[in-house]
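check this one:
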Amino acid sequence: MGELEDKVVLVTGAAGGLGRAMAERFRGEGAKIVIADIKEEDGTRTASSLAGRFHRLDITREADWIGVIEAILHTHGRLDVLVNNAGVFRHNIPFLETPLEVWREHMTVNCDGVFLGCKHGIPAMARGGGGAIINMSSMAALMALTDAAAYSASKAAILSTTRIAARVGGPLGVRVNAILPGLVLTGMSRSGIPAGLTEDEYVAQVLPMYPVGRIGLPDDIAEAALFLASPRSSFISGHLLRVDGAQDP
């Protein structure tokens, strides 16, 4: 039996990238996978490949969260693990030139989405005896990224939200932790490669930041998420786990 045998796992933003990698890893450990995304075609395809279910979810809409979690409880009777992975990343915008709407977009998607997931995920898990929530932050949360300030600030807010949710969820049997990935090349992070650089040139440029000698892989993040979702981390909550190859922020 796998570590998550028959556990019901909801992963947001899992139509591709890190979300898909985590969903695939969880499925390999026996979990029942629920994919939630605004990308219906890709999300449906991913869910089908994992013998799971797909729900369209706009993480900024509370009504969507209520509907998706009610549907999961109706179908499966429980929710055991939630990965708040969906987010937005805008880059190459100097801080003093950041439009207010870009700032608000990051706060709405990255911060409100995690808040709503915790707000509605904790009670749902408590009904089934407990569970685990994993919030995806970023090493950008610890860095002053002047050309991606809204992203950096929004990911920092997730750290505080995680600690708060962990204190609230603890007495209800719900653990809440955050992962701070270093650079992992996905569709989202590739959009941040400066114009004029190839992917290989960009990796060579940033590689000195990573003492382990390489950048991250989606599987690195998936393994960390599996640990935080599994009984192996039963006394870990409110933790901010850096998965960054000893990157110095």
